TrEMBL record:
Pfam families: MFS_1 (PF07690). This is Major facilitator superfamily domain-containing protein. It comes from Lasiosphaeria miniovina. Its main location: membrane. The keyword Transmembrane helix applies. GO terms for molecular function: transmembrane transporter activity. It is found in: Membrane. Belongs to the major facilitator superfamily. Keywords: Membrane, Transmembrane, Transmembrane helix. One of its GO terms (cellular component) is membrane. The keyword Transmembrane helix applies. The chain crosses the membrane at residues 32-52, 59-78, 90-108, 120-142, 148-170, 243-267, 287-304, 311-334, 354-377, 398-423, 435-460. It is a multi-pass membrane protein.
Amino acid sequence: MVAITGVLKTIFLSVNAQLAEAYEVSYTSVAALTGVPLILSAVTAFASLVASRVWGKRPLYLASLLLVFIGTVWNTNVATSYSQCMSARIFQGFGWGAFDALVLGSIQDTYFEHERGLRIAIYSIVAVTTTWGPPLIGGVASQTGSGFSLQFTILSSFFVVAVPAITLGAPETVFDRAYTLAQTPATGASKFKASLPIAPRRLFSLEAFNNYIVTMKPYSYSSASDTTTLLQAPRAFIAPTTVLLLLVSLLPYCTLWGLSSSLSLFFFPMPFESSPANIGTLMTGPWLLSTGVVATFAFFSWWHTHFTPKLHVAAVAGGSLLAFIGVLTFGLHIDASMTQPEDDNTSVFALRYLGAKVNFPAMSFVLGLLAAGTYVLDATVRPLIRASTNFTSSNMGIALRNTADMSAGVSCWRAVFAGILVIATPNDVWSWDGLRSLCIGVAIAQMVIAALVASVWWLWGEDIRRWDGRIMRLVDLEMLKRTGSFFDTD
């Protein structure tokens, strides 16, 4: 499902101009087909984090799967109705939010420390690859007689595997390991006592499968909610580390989404008249470079185990520099290529001459530099959040829980602002001068923000972690009330 939701996020990037013509609406309205689901997915992700504390993750996965399925199938037959297309996208946005916010927590719940690295690396690579890679194929598929609907038709076929896999195979991952171990024979009877011995491995049998189907429930538990439980995720969203990580990565991330969603606006009209397939190829750079950066940091275990303030400042500087070069070069090159000489008349021939000066492979590469810088900055999220939660948490379980909440907080805030910028960017870049001004402003602002945020972390890094602990109340007082020793289970 992570792959399916990734494809859905960027499925319209190469066909926005064609949609504007088919639906007879403005380009801004078509850009909203990407921006609105991004914003709604952040709302759903936040709600899912809160709800998972009460009902667990499994019912949320099932409900989200249903929403994404309805929205995707609906989008296969909305070629003439903008309102129906937007409604289908709203279903998709509400659906993919839970998968954005909860999957990292499920991995941390399910696997031990030495097992998580590979799983999180695979998850990260799949997420970024399926987000920025599909426009290359989607542009080609959209040039058929079925138009953009063919993309959704193809994607709907994957639900043949996804629906039974999620319905039957997604276990409930939320449980309190510390509490399980504390319930020992010395402390009284426990429902976990019988589950402590390792069960023998059994081969698949029809009887076991029938028993599994009969006993399977859409939910695993329903716990009583209190203010402390419901406020865990909101506190993580406003923790100082979460806010600083958001600030330093916000402009590159949002600009990447805004420019990518406006590619059809730039290159579909005269003098370019690029097809959806050609526009899709512009995403080659972002796809390759972002995947390469994510894979490098994901499998570079030393980065996570030996993360220091010097490495952090170097990553912020390097990521910001890549983003600066990428966004500035993108705007300046297009503006310079499309600026008409004073002695030329405004004519079709002059425009075609100017359009031929734009280097499309170079544009793909510099857009890839922006994506690479964005994900270099993103590579600092996990190490910094992990350092913060390990510094203030009373046990590993609480640290993992709040690590997932703070990581989801960064993602949710970025999704909200990215959705807003996706909708707003077309209004700012109708002219090449507007594109030039936007890129210059973003490039300069990013370097200033990066310098300020890096300085704050360098000078007051430990104080920031202490404020995280105060705001999030990471010390779990309930653990102090529990009796029993870990050694009683030996």
